[in-house]
Amino acid sequence: MKDSACYRMGQPSSWSRLLWAAWIGLVCGTGWASGELSVRADELVAITGGRIIPVVGPELDRGTVLIRNGRIAALAPELEVPPEARVIDATGQTILPGFIDVHSSDPMSQSNERNPNVPFLSVVDTIDPQALYFEDARRNGITAVSVVPGNSTMIGGQTVVVRTAGTYVNDMLIAGPVGVKISLRPPSGSRMSHLAALRRELDRAKGTAAADTSDPAESDSSESVEGSSEEGVGGQAQESPEASQTSGQGADARQQGLEVLRQLVGGRLLAFIYCDLPMDVVHALELIKTYDLKPILILGRECDRAAALLAEVPYPIVLDSRLVYWRTDPNSRREERIDVPAVFHSLGKTFLFQADTNASRQTLGSGYLWYQAAVAVKSGLSREQAIHALTLGPAQALGIDESVGSIEVGKDADLIILTGDPLGTLTWVDKTLVGGEVVYDRSRDEFLRRLLEATEQ
Amino acid sequence: MQRLESIAFQTGVGDAVPAVWAAAALITVARWAISVAMLGVGLLLAGGPAVWGQTAAPSPEAAQIDEWLIEADVLYTMRESDPLRPGRVLVRDGRVVAVGAELESSTARVVKVPCLMPGLIDAASTIGSQPSDDEVTDEITPELDVLQSLDLDASSFQVAVAEGITTAHIVPGTSNVFGGQSGLVKTAGLDGPHIWQRQVAGFMAICSDPTARNRSRGRPDSIYMRQPTNRMGVVWIVRAQLDKARRSEQLEPQLRLPAARQTALERLLLDQQLTMTVARTSHDLLTVLKLAEEFGFQPTIVGGDESYQVLDQLSAAQVAVIYTAMTTGSVVGRERTELRWNVPGKLEERDIRFALAEGRLLEQAQFAVRFGCSRSAALRSITRWPAELLGVGDRVGSIAVGYAADLLALSGDPLEMTSRPLWTMVDGALRAGEMDPEVTLNDADRAL
Residue A417 is inside which H or E element, if any? Predict the structure, then answer.
């Protein structure tokens, strides 16, 4: 990603490297004394004896994955392991590419701003590597997460993709900015004014994008911003209180936001478009066409009603976390079971999953991506398709499939080792590797151990 | 009478003006007169309590469905030597007439399924009723029957049958200290869901639920004044009522409990009926055990969220737990969520009998297994054990000769999250899902 440089702050500073080394030293020195697991990124690692599901290419019943410098160096049923390699024995276990969470606000301290129009903000500033989300993610086999602002917004800010392990957000960044969040559900007010305000913003970006070489026309655009709030948009596109206090800052934010939207219009940035209701889908498709967006559509629960429309377009879709629900016929009061994955699957439309970790969840497992995939298998998806939707599918949708999403030579060694069959009730993540480094080890998971061990008193 | 005593329990009664007292007493007496009258009418209409307990299982629709032979690749009977691979079940007139690996029948319709198990039993269900159905004019209503407010047309029954639930124990809400009588419902039949048994258990809420919305600073003379306002009050009401019921003979007639209430509480004290107590926190659970010891009844816990903290005590008292905390949506944070999932395993370790309840039973069993419960216990906790806890273990909850043909067919192992329910049979009739079209086509031919 060429834009990632602005977040990487050039080369990693020697200071941060020093801290990183110190941290690893601390970990090796205290907890991970066994040596086998104190895997460093610059070492040679061999995962031997396990069943390998590379997602791309044939499955290996028993094989070895060789990792050099954090990347996959080789993959074969029979492979001579160099003597200097550290060996992780995965006999009887299953090796998969790490799962990729394509849409989550959970790593953010707050998922939305009060101001619904903030394209100039980036989630990179709100990611806390120490957040509980990341620990849980590693435990559940997620190695990369696309952090996207929540749905209560209009233009919610820029998204990034991060690994789920690291000390600083800069270490974790895979790509960013990747996209911009757009929601078609108005946080307040009517859908009419919401859509009108959204179109106005995109029009402005499109206009300036066309006339890119011309005069900045900044005063022009900020004038029309003021004009727009006088037009009775009723809080839809108001400036944040801070921004409106000092018009100078507001204009800066405006300008920055405009730069971002220019990349969005034309498809240099992805558009994560949230469609709350089936009625929103048609507007989303119209926006995509009008502004030449490159979308990932985030669907609300009942968007199965728009399935026929969605099946005709090639855009990636992310299903609501509630994959199966009951719809009551208002007249007959008959309950109809709506199996959302089955609806899309029968139309030949592929889809991706999201997890819902907040308290409103309707099933026990909807906080877990692997559970969502299991439910989809229940709905008729093949296991291969379900695993694809957790790995390479989201990687392709996010445009990071060059480096992650499958076990292929040259890709990052973001892998998970499962205790058994993927999607099995009794299957746990045994180890999670990010960049060839073991970042989760079940045998050292104190939380899980206490949960599962017999009560002693 | 009783009401005045309750009012005295409130603070600040001394300041009340005599006139207000008189008015309050009048209103109270009037309220009681009306309730008693209404109850009397209710009893008359329902044909008296004697008939209630005998309401037998509905006769199956013999004319519609005659005989099935269900061939399962894997058959879970919930009896010994589970599972049978393969196993066959012969169903006639709504009942199971034979179970075995090698069964034949020339007259039955043959159905093949990957997996078959007994219909699920939800030991604490609120389908067909709503929290707002609680009778809040009084906090002591042991004589009320929750089935009177049950909506048998509720569409949630359709969802329950489709998810495999064939018997539901409908429980009263927890707004009252004595919530009333629960009942058993078959979730489907010829005319839809129907009541199977009344007066299955008497309910108490030994938790803070009955204090919700009650204000300690209200006007004690108001008819909207409700007790209790805290947990002390909950326990006090239980003690006072049970004590009064126990000493009824020695009390002046005007101090005695109303007859219906006295009868209901006597059943509890004499252990003539199941007593179910809703309790969630560890100190509430201990309170239940203490009250049970004091008054000599055998409680069944409903809720049991923190039962993992008092396993020794529950085990010693041989108390069963209807565990409803697996699905709770109110918890925040991983610890409080996932700690709830390992409770079934902990209960099993201590040989504490338990049932999983409140819907989504298969999914609950799956998570119980993932978090440490054995397969056999997880399956029994949604079938045989709740049936036994509810006193119908000889008629439902297992697949055995003479049992109701309540069956659930699945596409695979019931404890795998990738398996789905295919169809549900209640009393020998298909009530949800579809049987394998190929098989039913042949059968149709044969039937003609």
Answer: strand A415-418
Residues on chain B touching A421 (C-beta within 8 angstroms):
none
Tell whether B315 lies on the interface with A, counting CB pairs under 8 A: no
Q: How far is B370 from chain A (nearest CA, A)?
A: 5
Query: Looking at beta carbons, which residues of chain A come within 8 Å of B370?
Result: 425-426
* Predicted ipTM of the assembly: 0.81
| A88-109: pLDDT as tens digits | 999 999 999 999 999 999 899 8
Rounded to a whole number of angstroms, the distance from the CA of B409 to the nearest CA of chain A is: 14
- Maximum distance among all alpha carbons in chain B? 83
Q: Taking the model in full, what pTM does it have?
A: 0.82
User: Which of helix, strand or coil describes residue A96?
Assistant: strand
Share of chain B above pLDDT 70, in %: 78
Q: Write the DSSP assignment of A282-339 as a string of letters.
A: HHHHHHHHHHT-EEEEEE-GGGGGGHHHHHTS---EE--S--EEEEE-TTT--EEEEE
Give the DSSP H/E element, type plus range, for residue A372. Answer: helix A369-378
Q: In one letter, which amino acid is A38?
A: S
CB-based contact B372:A450 (threshold 8 Å) = no
CA A175 – CA A146 distance, rounded (Å): 9
Answer yes or no: is pLDDT of B60 > 50: no
Closest CA to A385 of A359, A421, A352: A352
What are the CA-CA distances from residue A373 to residues A161, A355, B33, B51, B69 (Å)?
A: 21, 10, 60, 51, 34
A vs B: CB pairs below 8 A: 75
Instruction: Indicate the SS3 state at residue A145.
Output: strand
Residue with tokens 């903030």: A118
Prior bond to A187 cis, omega within 30?
Answer: no
**Pair A97, A391: CB distance under 8 Å:** yes
In this structure, the number of other CB atoms found within 10 A of the CB of residue B344 comes to: 31
Neighbours of B287 (CB within 10 A): 19
Best of A138, A140, A448, A451 to disrupt the B interface (most B CBs within 10 Å) is: A451
> What is the C-alpha to C-alpha distance for residues A143 and A439, in angstroms, rounded to an integer?
9
How far off is chain B from A209, nearest CA to CA, in Å? 45
**Cα–Cα distance for residue pair B176/B138, rounded to 1 Å:** 7
Q: Please report where in the chains the tokens 């192992």 appear, as a residue.
A: B413
| Rounded Cα distance, A53 and A405, in Å | 12
Report the distance separating Cα A60 and Cα B60, nearest Å: 53
In chain B, what residues touch A451 (CB-CB under 8 Å)? 338-339, 342, 371-372
